[in-house]
Design a protein that fits this description.
With 275 residues, this protein is an alpha/beta fold. It has 12 helices and 8 strands. It folds into 2 domains: 200 residues, Alpha/Beta hydrolase fold, catalytic domain (Rossmann fold, 3-Layer(aba) Sandwich), CATH 3.40.50.1820; 64 residues, no CATH class. An 8-stranded mixed sheet has the order 1-2-4-3-5-6-7-8, with helices on both faces.
Length: 275
């Protein structure tokens, strides 16, 4: 495990590949209910070409949890990732990073690109989740769907009913009822331990102040990857993000659903290698 400092707060991350300034930096941001380890298969494929860094968000791994008196803003999460970029650029070739973010991580990547554009050389977004864009685009039914899902999760976690909350969340984001109950007990236990941290992140996503006009200011090259078998909500949202960023590319990944970083790691790694 590696560590960086973010204004006195410890950020943990997994790093690999050359550390002698001979390779460019690629940074991975995980989806909700996940830490840096979810990116190990992808990172291992790319470490012959890149210096890789996969970051643990607030409260995951050894990263210190947000402790402010107010609810956590997504900019706080983005600041943690920015601290890792600054630390790892000392070991890498170039002055910017290629940032890869999936779902929740893709939303953080967008916030980071807007707040610290000087750190971003390229963005690859796997079905990012800035759900606020749905209402702006007139997609009221889709917006209500995800807002209801996330609101129910947060309320259920705060009521202490972790198993109920995680079953609803995992089944929904994997696109089929019964997915949660099919997991091994050890996997369920690991996810139940993340329930409170996931609720904090979903609350931050729900309070995100972001408009499509904001995304128009992103100057770095952007690729949005959408699963060809994803649900209508995330498929539509991926298109909205791509349409909002000048010259962004929208690519469909054959056979993938929303949780593509778990199911299509090899294909994602080869796409990143080709960029």
């Amino acid at each position: 495990m590696h560590y960086a400092d973010c204004d006195g707060r410890t950020v943990s991350y997994e790093a690999g590949g050359p550390d002698d300034c001979s390779a460019p930096l690629i940074l991975f941001q995980p989806p909700g209910a996940s830490g840096a380890s979810i990116w190990r298969p992808v990172a291992s494929i790319l470490q012959d070409r890149f210096r890789t860094a996969a970051v643990n968000p607030s409260g995951y791994g050894d990263t210190e949890a947000f402790a402010g008196p107010e609810p956590m803003p997504l900019r706080d999460e983005a600041a943690l990732f920015a601290a890792v970029i600054r630390a790892e650029l000392l070991n890498s070739r170039g002055r910017t990073a290629h940032i890869v973010g999936h779902s929740y991580g893709g939303t953080i990547a967008l916030v980071l690109a807007l707040a610290w554009p000087e750190l971003v050389g390229r963005l690859t977004l796997l079905e990012p989740a800035p759900y606020v864009l749905l209402r702006e685009a007139g997609e009221a039914a889709l917006a209500e769907e995800i807002e209801t899902q996330n609101r129910h999760f947060i309320v259920t976690v705060r009521a202490g009913r972790y198993a109920e909350a995680m079953e609803q969340y995992i089944d929904y984001f994997n696109g089929r009822p019964g997915y949660w109950r099919g997991l091994e007990d050890r996997a369920q236990a690991r996810m139940l331990a993340l329930a409170e941290r996931l609720a904090v992140g979903l609350d931050a996503v729900g309070r995100l102040d972001l408009r499509s006009a904001d995304l128009a200011s992103i100057a770095a090259p952007v690729t949005v990857i959408r699963g060809s078998a994803t649900d209508p909500l995330h498929g539509r949202l991926s298109k909205l993000v791509a349409q909002s960023i000048p010259e962004a590319a929208l690519i469909d990944l054959p056979g993938a659903g929303h949780m593509m970083s778990l199911t299509h790691g090899t294909e994602i790694a080869e796409m990143l290698r080709a960029m």
